[in-house]
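Final report, Chapter 2: Outcomes

The project's central promise was a pipeline that accepts a single protein chain and returns its three-dimensional structure in a standardized token representation, suitable for archiving and comparison. That pipeline is now operational. To close this chapter, we reproduce one record exactly as it appears in the project archive, with the input sequence first and the structure output second.
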Amino acid sequence: MEKVLFSVAFFFAYTVQAVTGFAGNIFAMPVGTHLLGLHSSVAILNTLGFFACGLLAVMNIKHVNWRELGKIVGTMLPFVLVGIWLDTILPLDVLLRVYGLIIVLVGAKNLISKRQRFLPEWALWGVLVSAGLIQGMFVSGGALLVIYAMQKMTDKQQFRTTLSMVWAILNFIYAAIAFAQGSFTSDVVQVVGMCIPLAVLATFLGNRLQRRISKEKFLTLTYVLLLCIGLILLITS
């Protein structure tokens, strides 16, 4: 029963992921942690994230901003590894709550104020570094990366496809680490097998749904998701 419930939550989360280019693991992780355990959920969701995000990126490959992709991955990846190391030596509950509060404020502010304010270039580099650290510590750096990407990629298709490629790369690395740590038990492999068809269906459904969403509605949806992510982080931390 736990695996069935997880599959339903995964399908919803990755339909949203296919529409926006982010938020899939954030929505699925709390459910997975509760039903299947933390280590199993990390292994499952990063494997499926690599598959689903990679599929979406390949389907829309012409919209990838390769320059921004290289910049994002090249900046985030070293700090992802630092964040993974920090996760083993520091008590991070308080930091996770602060992070959640920041994301709530960013989402709420942009929903209330329709005027977009641009950060200076040096601040955007700081956002990328912070996104890498948070991704390494909490597997939740997407909310900060969205702040960067919203300013750098104003085209909806370019935004979601480039972010999907970022997550495909990072999820592959996380899945490889989980495999090396022995997290791929028979139950994990079974759940991954169950969810692969759902990942394909969610990706095609989300890809179709996003065509019906205007740029203005896409921005609103993005900020609503940021607000929800921040609340999830505050509740579960």
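Archive annotation: The mean pLDDT is 84.
This record, like all others produced under the grant, will remain available to the consortium after the project formally closes.
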